[in-house]
Amino acid sequence: RKELVDIAREANCFLIEDATYAFLAGKQRAPLIALAPERTIYVGSLSKSVASGLRFGYIVAPKIYVRQIRSVIRASYWSMSSLTTAIATSWMADGTVKKLETHQRREARLRQLIAQDIFKGMETVAHPGGLFLWLVLPEELRMDRIATDLAKRGIAVSKASAYATTRHAPHALRLGLSSVPLDKLSTVLTEVRTAIEQFPI
Prior knowledge:
By secondary structure, this protein is an alpha+beta fold. 45% of the residues lie in helices and 14% in strands. The chain starts with a helix and ends with a helix.
């Protein structure tokens, strides 16, 4: 992080830190804005860490840029409900947000443990506290055909091609673990594994 700050200062450029999912990491390192407050724009949100219906985001930025940032935001989004703002700021102040983030973090880790157990022996890529995982498919299977088959079963997954930044996408599916009720997660993921193992080649 210090090296990144040094590079930004040498190149005289901004650092934009998206901290929307930072709460999942647990004990966090100091954000970039603490290391380079003069050139860092820090973006946060409560819709992922607290509740999806709480559409509340915030930006911390150097004072000299606040007016410009505010005008850009207003060009696309004028204001939000005063009730939402009151709830969000109150929960941030009284510790509710911290408690809810702790709960979300524990549940995310539990969901990952369930997934890792079900996909044992299969190649996966995931963060222990992440809300999704990548399931690498056998080379002989086409990810679009698997995704279509799962969709017919009522299970929505994403193909790696939707996220790839290179010409050739990884041969994998992205499985969101947070959209399924916890008591049904094991059943759904088992069906995903079964669909892949039984898919005709």
